[in-house]
Structures are given as C-alpha cells and as structure tokens.
Amino acid sequence: MPIMVHPGDTDPSLGEILAELRPGDLVTHCFHGRPQGILDGDGKVLPEVAEAARKGIVFDVGHGVGSFSFDVARKALSQGLVPATISSDLHHYNVNGPVFDLATTMSKFLLLGRPLDEVVAKTTIVPAKLLGLGDRLGAVREGFLADLAVFRLAEGEFEFEDSMKEKMLGRQRLEPVAVIRRGRIYRSHLRLQRPIGRPF
After folding, report:
1. Residue 165, number of CB atoms within 10 A of its CB
2. Exposure class string for 11-50: b at 16+ Cβ within 10 A, else e
3. φ and ψ at 151, to 5 degrees?
4. Chain segment 133-163, per-residue pLDDT in tens
5. Over 80: is that where the pLDDT of 194 sits?
6. Residue 158 and residue 198: Cα distance in Å, rounded?
7. Which of 99, 113, 141, 144 has the CB geometry, 3.0–4.6 Å to 94, for a possible disulfide?
8. How far is residue 135's CA from residue 145's CA, in Å, rounded to a whole number?
9. What is the pLDDT of residues 73-124, one digit of tens each?
10. From the CB of residue 64, how many other CB atoms can be counted at a distance below 10 Å?
C-alpha cells in the first residue's frame, strides 16, 4: 500500500524525504507556497523533485487552507511538473474558502490551462487506480459501482483565490448538478458564489 507524506516547513528537507519514497508513494500539498516546497529560490523545479516524478512518485494537489499557490502551480506546470492527482483536502477550516469544494479546485486547474478531460481523470480514474481500486471505481463502465457526480461547465467570469490570498479570474467553472448514489438521484441545491460581471 502506498504511503502519503505532507511536506512543507519540514525538517528533514524535501530532497531527503523524497529519497525515502518508493514509486507509487504520494506527496500531497505539492503546490504549497511555504518553505521546503518543490521550487528553488529562482522558481525552478528542484532536480530531486523532477527525478522523483520520473521514478513514479505521485504528486498530489491537496489544496487545503494553506497548501495551494497559483504562483507555484504556474511555474511548475510551465516546467512540465503536472500533478498526478487533483484533490481538495476539504475540511472545516476551508469549506468556506478558499477551497469550498472539489469542483472549485478542479476549476482552478481549468484556469491554469489544463484540459477538462485531464482534470476529470485526475480526480476520478487516476486516484482509483493508484489506490488499487481501478477495477471497480472511477469510471463509467459495466461492472463498476454506479456512483456518479454530474457537473455543469458554466461560462462567465469567475474569481478564484489560492491559499496565499492571490486571486485570479477564470472563464469557466464546474458546478455540481447532481449525484447518483446506488441508483438514487440527489440534486444539488448549493448556493455558489455569483459570477463577476456578465458572462462573456
């Protein structure tokens, strides 16, 4: 079974931590903006981080209340370090912002230029496979558990905020419509933040 580590403001160094991991192990909060992150002082992906990704160490978003920086994500993505999985790390202290929900975290990666099919895969089938559940979860397929989340891809102008208080405007947002659990439909009644201005 893989293990997960949460580096950041840590001793030992990130490089020392990565050296102890095996392919399939996970590093979450990979785009945090605190010390012991994935970038050096010049904004370059650390060589040991790039090597760990090549070896099969899994880098996970794990947004959280203090663990996601647009700046770190932009720089890492531009250098080819793409997270294997996208997760929200949703809990009591971030459900009212900046995380809100998994759909908002997914939408932030649309804003950062990742394609919709990749974003969906990194929140469904990829995590299922990494956890050894890819034979029954994460995809719409005969014989799989039919638990589904239905989203609308809304167009407009939407404000997103990271854990470092940086705000960005995006033109798309995934909005939950319904969940189907064991054949029963549960429709969303969430009150989402209003769009900024008029739709494009």
Report:
1. 7
2. eeebeebbeebeeebbbbbbbbbbebbbbeeeeebbebbb
3. -125, 155
4. 889 888 888 888 778 899 999 999 999 999 9
5. no
6. 10
7. 99
8. 10
9. 999 999 999 999 999 999 999 999 999 999 999 999 999 999 999 999 999 9
10. 23
